[in-house]
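Entry: NHL repeat containing protein
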Amino acid sequence: MHRGLLKILILFKQQLQLVQAQVHQQAPRQPVQVHRQAVLQPVQVHRQAVLQPVQVHQQAVLQVVQARVHQQQVTTTTTTPFNSCKNLRWNQTGQIVAGTNSGSNANQLKNPSCLYIDNNNTLYICDYGNNRVQRWMQGGTNATTVAGSSTGSSGSTSILLNSPTDLTFDTNGFMYVVDNGNNRVQKFALGSINGTTVAGTIGSHSSALTDLDEPTAIDIDNNSNMYILDMGNTRLVKWAPNAIMGTLLISDNSLNNVYGMIRMPNSSNQVYMCDEGSDEIHVWAYGASSQNMSLQTVNDSQHNSLNNPTSMVLDPYGNLYVADTDNDRVVMYCVNSTVGIVVAEDNNSVPSLQKPVAVAFDSDLNLYLVSTDSDQVVKLSRI
């Protein structure tokens, strides 16, 4: 491109010299101002005529160069993959974001059992020992009771709970609470403390598909179908919206110590389940008589297996995180890996990371864990 531009400039110079020579030969010896203007005028016109394609050519060259630079920038951005398994890590010094010590005041928790973080990074905590669900805003010192009694009283009416163990939200903003002690699931509209029973029968805990018996965990899909871990009946059941009974998905006597459950990403018929009895995470397909596979091994020389895993959470990349309660740590199982990585561990930490029973992420992938040792929620910032 530069050689073509140089040729045009040389040609222009040669043509200009030729015109000047012709003018010099034809011009009279005496200076005639009018004649000079007449001669120079075509020269100026010719110069503009020559310069115009040169300027257009320069602009075209610049546009091509800019386009190539932009193409290189786009290519560099789109071809650099993010390895979540290698790059996701968290500060091991935590920050207390909810709870002070055991109690029933607005700034306290008692044996908290679950944690849900919404898109606004607001925390919803199952305050198991106080029979309530507490909403904790980021930076807040006190919580607001959004389900159950603010004073910790238990009961079976529509405004009371008895030992809640898990909660989730549907796409319409309704909250679903596993009311373990009342053998039911309660649904709450935004801003209402009056719950509606959407699974289970009040006052009954039989093995009939209309009932639940000590349910422990819940998950929900985009169509508001509920997946409920019915531990007392050693089964997983699915309840459609407005259904009066559940559909059996998995049933096995080995599920009598399973407390946590979450549906697998990119699968329509498999779940992860935390089995405290065998210290394993089971991958189980609907209708199967046994688990497809189990996760238990951890890449740790001191504690190379799980010990009393209680709950799980998935990150946006599909990696699984397990609250390994009796090992006082959180273990990460990367996608397609059967060996866990320790990503958070208590080493006489302040605040305490001991006895984590629930884990969750906020929108910035900061890691939160619920410690029953301190009755607090601790935040570990992503690094």
